[in-house]
Amino acid sequence: MIRSKNMASQNLRTPGPTPLPATVREALARDMIAHRGPEFAAVLGECLSGLQWGFQTQHDIVILTASGSGGLESLIPNTLSPNEPLLAVSIGYFGDRLASIARTYGVDVLPLRFDDGQAADPSTIAQKLEERPDIHTVFVTHNETSTGVLNPLPEIARAVRDVRPDVLLLVDGISSVGSVAVQPEAWGLDVLVAGSQKGWMVPPGLAFVAISPRAWERNKQAKLPRMYFDWQPHKKAAGEGSTPWTPAVSLFYALQEGLKLMREEGLERIFARHQRVGRHTRQLLTDLGLRLLADPRFASPTVTTAYVPAGVDAKALLRQVHERHDVVLAGGQGRLDGQIVRIGHLGRVEEDELTRAVRALQVELQAATGANRPAA
Ligand SMILES: *Cc1c(COP(=O)(O)O)cnc(C)c1O
Q1: DSSP secondary structure string, 122-181?
Q2: Ligand 1 mean position to 8 CA, how many Å?
Q3: Taking a C-beta distance cutoff of 8 angstroms, is the pair 197, 204 a contact?
Q4: Candidate of 145, 193, 303 to mutate for ligand 1, largest count of ligand atoms within 8 Å of Cβ
Q5: 374 pLDDT band (50/70/90 cuts)?
Q6: 351: buried, middle or exposed (CB in 10 Å: 19+, 13-18, 0-12)?
Q7: Please, which residues have CB within 8 angstroms of residue 23's CB and are 6 or more apart in sequence?
Q8: What is the pLDDT of residues 297-354, one digit of tens each?
Q9: How far is the CA of 194 from the centre of ligand 1 (A)?
Q10: Distance 1 CA to ligand 1 centre (A)
Q11: CB atoms within 10 A of CB 267
Q12: Closest Cα partner for 164 from 213, 129, 192, 138?
């Protein structure tokens, strides 16, 4: 078992959960309040307006007590009806997950999969929509956390709108929103999902869903069964300063604090910092001689992926990095399991933390390949 001598010094570099600033941890220790009282109404109001600021939107936001996948699951019964077609664009593991959720609900999923490391091609998406005028709903991931690719979302949204202005566009922004610029109204995004444990510096457990007026119209007609994740009771309760079910109150305290820190820094500076740290990480890995997975034109500002050299056991490598250096990186998911390392750089993070993390990786890579042994 791995026991960190000083948990605060652990360099947690997974693409969520992200490390918690001290004031966020302190907020988590606060006592409970009634979730149907004026104190919680004030907390909720501040969280909702802060999220609208972070999402750069005037759209309604619903906060679900669920992990990001719960936010993704909510997309399906809130917008679709049984056997209705859904164009599910995927560039990796998380895009595939949404398709699998939709299939579970009995949606007619039309998968459009691009290769790992590549971005989705807007013209291919437009072509699919031209071929299939019965498709009224499109899903796409903004930042694919399994491959470290940031899709060209404005171009994708424009291509979709050019062909079919009425289509509903659903977006997984779980590892982008709050760290990377998004403009839901200007780009024409109908529903955008984010998650607390990624760029927001909050523990896992809250999903944020921004909903356009067009998505609310669709919501009234969507016929799949829904209950816990139904957006309507959330909207109604929010109007009364509450939530339909008992919310994870402590996480709302943490979110209030995380948003305060984000406002102090400012969105433009947050976005610029993620770009800068992303560039720094890619440079460090390239300098080690590692091959990056993501197409450099679409490299993610929040997570970087690289192939592990042939002959090196990726799982053993990550274990050594953890045990000997207290640096926690992530491995590959799905078909990339055992092939790549993933390094998260979202939330409160600066270049030096990545420098230290990659140095640990370098030491253990040299140990694994024998590169530090003198020649015989
Ligand atoms: C983390 C993540 C998810 C899954 O969120 P959970 O909170 O683990 O349920 C989905 N999509 C993307 C892009 C993610 O980064």
Answers
A1: HHHHHHHHHH-TT--EEEEESEETTTTEE--HHHHHHHHHHH-TT-EEEEE-TTTBTTB-
A2: 24
A3: yes
A4: 145
A5: low
A6: middle
A7: 257, 260, 261
A8: 999 999 999 999 999 999 999 999 999 999 999 999 999 999 999 999 999 999 999 9
A9: 8
A10: 26
A11: 15
A12: 129
Pocket of ligand 1 contains residue 175 by CB under 6 Å: yes
- Using 50, 70 and 90 to split pLDDT, how confident is the model at 370? confident
Residues 6+ apart with CB under 8 A from 163: 126, 129, 130
174 C-alpha to center of ligand 1: Å?
A: 6
Helix (H, G, I), strand (E, B) or coil at 22: helix
Residue 64 to residue 230: CA distance in whole angstroms:
10
- The protein residue whose alpha carbon is closest to atom 5 in ligand 1 is 68
Measured in Å, residue 372 CA sits from the centre of ligand 1 at 38
160-178 pLDDT tens trace: 999 999 999 999 999 999 9
| Closest ligand 1 atom to 70 CA | 9
- Distance between terminal CA atoms of the chain? 36
- C-beta 141 within 6 A of ligand 1: yes
pLDDT at 7 over 90: no
**Which among 91, 94, 193, 302 is the best mutation to test ligand 1's pocket, defined by most ligand atoms within 8 Å of the CB?**
94
